[in-house]
Each structure stands twice: as structure tokens, then as C-alpha cells.
Amino acid sequence: MPALRSHAALAVALLAACAAPEKSGGLDPEPVVERVVISPANVALAAGDSFDFSAEAELSDGSHDSLLVSWASTGGIVSGAGVYHAGNAPGTYMVIVVTPDLQHADTATVVISGGTGPTLAGLTVQPASVTLDPGANAGFSAVGSFSDGSTAAVVASWNATGGSVTQAGSYHAGPAAGGYRVIASHQGFTDTALVTIRDTTTPPPTLTAVTVTPATVTVDPGSTTAFSATGSYSDGSSGAVGASWSATGGSVSQGGSYQAGATAGSFRVVAAYLGRADTAVVSIRDTTTPPTGGTVLFTEGFDDAGVGSRGWYDNTNPAVVATGQHGGAGALQMAWNVGSSTPVKGAAVRHLFPATDRIYVSYWVKYSTNWIGSTVDYHPHEFHVITDQDGAFVGPSATHLTTYIEQNYQNGGVPRLSIQDALNIDVTKLNVNLTGVTENRAVSGCNGSTDGYPDSCYQSGTQWRNEKIWKASGPAFLPNPGPGYKGDWHRVEAYFQLNSIQGGKGVADGIAQYWFDGQLLIDHQNVLFRTAQHPSMKFNQFVIAPYIGTGSTVAQTMWVDDVLLATARMP
What we know:
- By secondary structure, this protein is mostly beta strands.
- It has 1 helix and 48 strands.
- The strands form 12 sheets. Strands 31, 33, 34, 36, 42, 45, 46 and 48 form an 8-stranded antiparallel β-sheet that branches.
């Protein structure tokens, strides 16, 4: 009879349900999660074994559904998919599942017996740091690192300062601003996350100024310069700001990269941010008009061989010929025999001049129709300018600064300028960049470079040498008759201006230029010739010393005439 009464009761309930009036008006409310259930609730495993757990949500309308959950465990490792890998320590442990809102959780029991498995080797709290407003929440998790290299979430014990933290890792910020900690502990391991609670009672600092750096620059046409904008605030702090950039005389990116235009003059780079602005001044050099109004230091027409009476020394008996000259009654001739490094009667011809920080050299030159130079990609050396930091008879290849004017012939003569300052090399710091360390260093190689031009460092015998070279883009002295023919007279002009010394450091603003028959072929106006080691350095010696180090492979000749030295370019 009880069974019959039970079935009867069920029938009555069903009938009552059928007879109940239908709901009217509106929609049924969306079901919500009432609890989460892990399955199975208990499992026994051998050490090192694995087991797949599942989690299911029970909803308010009585239905069940799967959902995204977070997994954690003790005594082993559980994956984000619920796969539990038992550790090696026998005992009773837990597998825990938690909903994303940290409002619902369930636990399964795992009994591990015997065997070996990975052990906990470290503990990390994630995230490592957060910044919160007072009263705000943040979720933290504890991740274990295990002896087999794996990682997995673990159920840690939580503590906190400056607020409260649940044992699920949910931190609630307190009202007081400051720096605090959230601490997780598990199986003897501990890690800490930093919590910064903002001060929401004090108004944020206001922007008081924007500063553009650098404030002034001098650049060549087409060059690129990086600018930055820094904000200053009412509380005394400062920092980079995302300014809007504009410019004249060129273009500027919204990252502050300015590219100079082609027109010389004074221009502006402007940074604006939150109603504040600042301006940098950009001076674009005129690289097409050389400096004028200089002083002539000396001239030489080589009209006769008596050069000693006109200030030349060292070699006072060079070969001067009275045929084929460019102007006047003669020309200096330098003729190589096969195998020779120096020409006949071709020892160094030197001339001193009043010391100056800038030097303009002009000469006329032509080469024999069979001229091939050294046949390698260096030499012959031809013309040199040396400074007052060395003696009147110094060898030009190892000084405190020598500038070179020459051409290297490779089926056509390619003009080139170069420098060396071998006597400045710190040989105890070879190939060590000393540019940010000391001014007692070389600028042409071996100790670093600040002007960005390639340099080299090499050993010649027992001495260390260096060099920095600038070349024209192609040959100017051409092998065949016509414009640029090597067998005709051509005017070569070169201009060197020493860089400035500012604030006890050399500034890369020196100039190196080369003209061929009036055409500017080499132009560099950001050269570092010297450091503050030689603040009073000046040019004072001109040397004609043609030299083919490998020996001339043919009998060949060059002629020089109408030399002029001045402190600026002359007509």
C-alpha cells in the first residue's frame, strides 16, 4: 500500500501541475548559477597517476550546464581542463573548482598511495603587482613550479595588508592609500604580490610646462634628428608625454623624428600637449655655398726650383719642369719608376703657415695618360695637412691629427678625404669604446667613434694606426679623353674645419669638403676631428708627399701647379 500511496501522490502532483494556470505577462527570468559541482567527489590514485575530473553548474531553474571554471589542487597538479596528476607523497588531498566570479566552489577528495611524482619547487603569485582604487577588488592566483619542470595552480593560504583577501585569492582594497602586499603560502613556499592603493582624495598634479629636448640643433639638409617632449607637473614630478608635433623647414613624425629639408635657414620643431607647448630651434646648414672672406696663407706657382726661398722645407730640391704647366713658368713633377714607392726627387715638400682652426687647400693636378695609381684600394697618398700638436718634420702617417687629400684610381680616380690620429690611441684600451668614458682617446678608430662614420684600427709593425675615410660616390679623374680626363689639368679644392669643444667635450660639428672642377663631391659637416684632449689644436703645416706603399707597377707621373692655402674658399 505505501508504494501505491507514493505513486498516487506523484500522480496527484502531476495533475496539479497540469492544472496549474500558465504564467502570463513578461518573460521568465534568466537562470543563474546556484552552485558548482565537481565530479566525482572522491577518488583514490596511485602516486603519479592521472584522473579526469569534470565540473557542472546547477542553475536556478533546476537545469545543469557546463561552464568555464578555474582549477586548483593539493598533492599534485591539475590542468585547466581538470586533468589531475597525482604527486609522489601519499596522503589525502583536494581538487578544487571555482567559478570566474569567485562566488561558487566545490571540492573533491583525492587519496594518493605509494610511488613517486613531481614535488613543489617554487610558488609564484599572479599578477605580481596591481594598482587599485580604494574599495576595488582584484583576483590573485598561486602557481606552483614542480620538480619535473611543470607548473599548475595550487590552493594556497592567503594573507594581505592594506585590505582583505579571501582564501580563493580575492583581494579587497582598504580605504588608505599606499603600498601593500598579498601573500600566498603553500607547502613551505611563499610569494608576495605588490598592491598600490591610489590616493583618490588628493587631486592629481597638473601639467605646468612642456620641454623639448634638444633645445637647439645644427644639421645638414636631409639629416634626421630625434626630439623628445617632457612634461613638468605641479607636484614637482616630470616625465615623457605623448605630444603632438609640428615643424617648419622639414617634416616631423608624431614620435618626434625630424627630417631636415633642403633649404638652409633657421626653423622650428614644436611639441604641444594639454594646452602647453615648447619650441626647439633647428639650423639647417648651407652646404652649397662655402665660407668666404678668408685670409690667404700662401700661394705657390712652382715657376722655378728655388722653393726653399719661398718657405718650403724638408725637400728643397724637388723636380720642377718648365713644360706642360698649368700656369706661370713651371710645375711640380713627381715621376715614379717601376717598383718605387716615392717619385724621383719626391721626398716630402713641406710648408708652414699661421695656425688656424680651418684650412682651405686649392691646387691644380694632372696625371700621365697611363696613370693607374697603386692598383689596390688604398694609396697613393698625395697631400696632407698637419696640426701644431706635432713637430715640423713629423711623419704624416702617425700624428695627433693628419688630414689627407687624394684620389684612389680604380679604372678612374675616386676622390677621397681621410684623417688619422694614431698618437692619440689609448693602446691599453684597443677596440674599447671610450667615447662616454674619457676625452683622452683617439677619434679615427681603436677607441670608439661619436660622429657615426666608419673607422678602422690596425697594426703597422709595432705601432697601432687608425683612419677614417670619406669617398666621392664615383670616379672624377676619368680614363678616356673628354670631361674629367686624367691627362688634363683639374682644380681640386678641399676644406677642413676643426670641431668645437664645448663643456669639456669634443662636439661633432667639424667640416670636411672636396670639390672637383668646382663641383662639390664630398660634404660632411658633423665630423669629430679632436676631443677636449687637444682644445687648442690648430692646422699649421701643409705637406706634398706622394707615396705608393706597394710600389708603382708602371712608370707613371703626376704634376701639381698653382697651390693656394687660405682660411676660407677662394675663387
